[in-house]
Amino acid sequence: MDIPYTVTARPDTGLWNAKVGIWLFLASEVMLFGGLFSSYIFLRLGADYPWPMHELQVGFGFVNTLVLIASSVFVVYAWVALKMRNWRRFQFWMFLVIVSAGLFLVNKSFEYYNKLTHYHAELQDGTIIAGHLPKENSKEAKSIVFEASHVSVDSASGSHYFLKYLENKDDVRFVTEGGIEVDPSRKWFENLKRGLKLSAKADRLAAEGDIAAADRLSAAVEKDYKILGEVNGAGQVRLTLSKPGKFVVPRHKTLSWEETKMDFTRGLATSLEGMLVSASLKLAVDELDMREYLRRDEPREKVISESTLFGHFDENAEGQQLLKDFTDYHTPLVAEYEAAVAEWRLENPGEEFEEDTFMEWERIKLDKLHKILEEGHAASGDGYEQTAAAGAGAGHHGHPYVTVPFEDVRFFSNYGPRKNPYNAIYFTMTGLHGLHVLGGMFVLGYFLVFGRKLFLQNPEHMANRVEVGGLFWHFVDLVWIFLFPIFYLM
Amino acid sequence: MADTPEELQKHLKAYTIVGAALLVFTVITVAVTYVDFGHTFANVGIGLGIATFKAGLVAYIFMHLNHERAMIYRILVFTFFFVAGMFLLFMLAQADPITRFR
After folding, report:
1. What was the ipTM of the complex prediction?
2. What's the average model confidence in pLDDT over A402-420?
3. What CA–CA distances, in Å, run from A191 to A197, A213, A227, A241, A270?
């Protein structure tokens, strides 16, 4: 089929068709990104925490902005080269466009990786810790480790999903209460549920008075679904493990844990019996924020000695020294805050004080707290990095380890979308933008590799294709021009 | 439309200048965020102002909106209208005028 008006203008629009098409597509793209930009504003105005400023590494975003702008210039150069019927020059500039796009994505992937491997924990007492997991046993450092002798799965809502968290799956055999060895696979649970359904149907028939049909069905179920006999009075299937099963479960997949028992979340409807091995978070700390904690209206010595963190820094002098330095740094900040609040109260007599009023103040202070660890030690001139690295408990990049029981942790997450709405909208928008870069890279790469034939047949048509691809590319650049300041700078 | 070699050369020059201007403005965007203009709205407003100017340059020069047919502008007017409407809806949700002025 011949597509009309690829080069000449259509009389009614005055344009070749693809031009109208790409602009209509870009209009829909404006709506797509417009919705996300609106969400950004909405989330930011409604945020109940100081909006992160300069939390991302500006250098990454800055370089990526330059790369995208340069690639936009290269695209128009490539288009002009085609207009001048110079294939070689077109190839040269288009190649640079593809390289720039690749560079952008590589840069972005480093950023994502850094975010997803950086962790954030809020303790019950308000202390905020940021840091990295230890290199060895990193999975166990953020999980609950439990050695199970028995697994109980709810027959109606449970499933085989618990197997995902069983480390020594291949060495363990499962035996039911009736002494039958089973493989608690997906199929097994599906079969169990089918049996339950039929047996419920038999009960319904009996209730409706159709005794004969109910009996027939019951007999059939009893014959075909012997498995139902394994469901105990609590509606659970309780399996005994041939040897202790080592479960490593992320905290957010658990409901509760004790010395001898652990419950998965309701969705998994599974509980374990056995022995709790460990339920604590181990992080190599690189940032601390103790303002909320230190604001407590109690003598400072008492406050510090009762701090969760103080009790949990590994027995290492650097950790203790670090904590002391932090409290020394934070105490004046808290005093400054209290003074600002007192001043506000004087100026606004009778009005009710709202923490929100001081969000701005908080925000500025939070900026100052970034990278505080390095700064604090640079200021005190004790060469922290070296001393900590020499210490016995030195962790990631020489940062001290802290091990905190999960019951003292209020919230724990990596710097992924789960952390807060800022991170969520950051990943949504930059992720979607990244996909656009990838898409543009494919389209423009296709022109570069396979465009020669069309160029020889109809060079103007080829130039128009590149113009249309270029328009998309400029749009992607244009979106980034907004994304960069709103996420990295302000 | 730019078809003669001379005009294309002129375009190339314009593209280079605009590209350089965009790079310069990117540096300015980063620099001004380290200056406090007194209020969040001022800081954000100035940052967005520069970004809008940069986006305008891209649209006007790179995307050839300085010499396009009427059809394209018509599409854009509609786009602007609808996107502004969408922002307004979000703002209304934020301002919550229904329960606030009940």
Report:
1. 0.93
2. 88
3. 10, 22, 8, 21, 18
| CB proximity list for A81: less than 8 A, separation 6 or greater | A87, A89, A90, A92, A93
**Could you tell me the two tokens for A47?**
């945020």
pLDDT band at residue A116, thresholds of 50, 70 and 90? very high
Q: Give me the percent of chain B exceeding a pLDDT of 70.
A: 95
- Asked if A49 and A358 touch (Cβ cutoff 8 Å), the reply is no
How much is the mean pLDDT over chain A? 84
Q: Where are the domains of chain A?
A: 17-118+419-489, 121-135+283-414, 138-281
Q: Which amino acid is at A168?
A: N
Chain A stretch 13-32, residues whose beta carbon is closer than 8 A to a beta carbon of chain B: 13-15, 19-20, 23-24, 27, 30-31
Contacts of B49 in chain A (CB under 8 A): none
Question: How many other C-beta atoms lie within 10 A of the C-beta of residue A305?
Answer: 10
d(C-alpha A405, C-alpha A409), whole Å: 7
Please name which of B6, B81, B18, B78 lies closest in space to residue A474, comparing C-alpha atoms: B18
Which of A235-239, A476-480, B27-31 holds the top average pLDDT?
A476-480
CATH number of the A17-118+419-489 domain: 1.20.120.80
* Gap between the Cα atoms of A41 and A45, Å rounded: 6
Mutate to test the interface with B, among A76, A79, A464 (most CBs of B within 10 A): A76
Structure tokens at B23: 């790079």
